[in-house]
Structures are given as C-alpha cells and as structure tokens.
Amino acid sequence: MPGPQRYKPGDFLGIPKGEEGKPDAPFVIFPVSYEATVTYQRGTGRGAKAAIEASHQVELWDEELGMETYRVGIRTVDGFSSTAKPERALVELRRRYAVLLQPDRVIAMIGGEHSITLPAVQACAEVHRGLSVLQIDAHADLRDEYEGTKLGHGCVMRRASEICPIVQVGIRSLSLEEETYRQKGSITTFFAHRDRGRDVSDAVLAALTDTVYVTIDLDGFDPSLVPGTGTPEPGGLGWAEVTHLLRKVAANRRIVGFDVVELLPLGSNAVSDFVAARLTYRMIGYVVRGRDVAKL
Prior knowledge:
By secondary structure, the protein is of the alpha/beta class. 31% of the residues lie in helices and 18% in strands. The protein has eight helices and eleven strands. α4 links the parallel β7 and β8 (166-171). α2 crosses α3.
C-alpha cells in the first residue's frame, strides 16, 4: 500500500510534495461539508473529509487505465462548510463553485448531502450550453417540496430538471408524486429492477446531450458494497456496472463536472470511504482518457 511519506493531510490522494496540481490544474477537488436537510441517518457532513483521508490509500497507478492519472494535475481547494438553511447555504455554495469554474476545468465535488448538486448544475449550465445531467442514485429526488423546503436532498433533481434534461440510473425508490412528475418532465429513468443484468449504456448515451454533468449518490450502489450512506436501499448497482457506464459516457460525451455525494462514514468500517475515494480518482481518469488531455 502507499506509504505515509506521501501523505498531505487535507489533500486528495496525498500527492507527493512538489507534484501537487498548480493553480491552473485541469481537475479540482472541492470538498463540501453540508447536511442541513438530511432526514434519516446523519453524518454525511463528515463524508468529504473521510473520502479524502481514504484517498491516501488509493494507488496513484490506475491498473485499468494504465496510467498515473494525477500527473495531469489535480488540485484540492479549500472546502465549503455551512450549517445554514439551504436557501442561504446553496447560494453561497454556487458563488464558490462559480469562482472555481473554468471552461476547460473539471470540478470534482465531494460531499455532503445531495442538495449540493444543484448549485454545481446551475453554475455549469451558465458556462456550458446544452447541458444534461447523468444521475446515479437509488432515489429519484424529484419531490417539489420536502420537509418544508424546495431545496433539500429529496428535491434536488426536481430543481435540476427545471434547468436541463436529466437521465437517471439505478432508481429503486420514489413516491407517486415523483413518478407523476417523472412521466411529464424531461427525465429519462433506468430503474434498477427493470434493467438488472442489462447493459443500458447505449440507451443512456442516446438520452444525454453532448455536454454532461454527472452526479453520483453513493446509495446508487448496493449497500453490500457501500453501507455507509444515509438512506441505503437494497437491490443497487455494482462497481463494474457503474464504472462501465461512466467510462462509456466519458468516452462519448464531454463531462464538465461531477460529484460524489451522500457518504456517511462508519468509523472502523472504512469500505464506503475507500469506494468514494477510488471512484473519484477513477472518474477523473475516465475524463482524462475521454478528452485525451494528457499523454501519460
């Protein structure tokens, strides 16, 4: 395993001294500690820190992609933390995200509850025309209002769908209200029960636009792989299914940003933290390969 000599506390991967991403790095890790609207198990506010700590155990050499992805330039920036209500906190998060955003930069946001996706989508839609969103998730998150707010984690994709088309994968929990809205809106849904054992990647690609923001709620995975999430749902996706889809999307569409959210650290059981860290690094590698931004 990677030795402690390369650890840089607070930085993704603990990249060796002198090899950190420069200010103009094409990839930025943006930790977000926010969980004001969580309605079941709390703790996702600690998710970004746990994922970054776990990333220090991720090998820099990616055996699937055959490269040390970090050499293209990955910089960890100061995180965002707030205990304010979403009506205030998400406005500030959008401002912070917009400052970091550049046309050729990909921000990898690590959270945090799923409501943090909305400011990222809003900011990306202003910079990248024709945006669509790929959502990997157990829950549809299409409620108009939940627990007294329209900006909570249960409403995030409803709000995003008011900005651009949404493609959902792995869905296995939604209300009648959400199903009714889903059938009317610009939303394409791939249900876990219906698509079990089927490669839906071509159909997903057909539903996406050329420019894509990817949001990965870790409860999209089966809880046998990722138990550390606020609202685990049985019957979820596997590692191979998710990475196959992400690799294909990155190869055929322009991914302009992504997030990995809803990590709830479980103390001594760090498997979920490590999956979040490994997935973030692998996702960056897929974008590098898709854009051919580095000759590694």
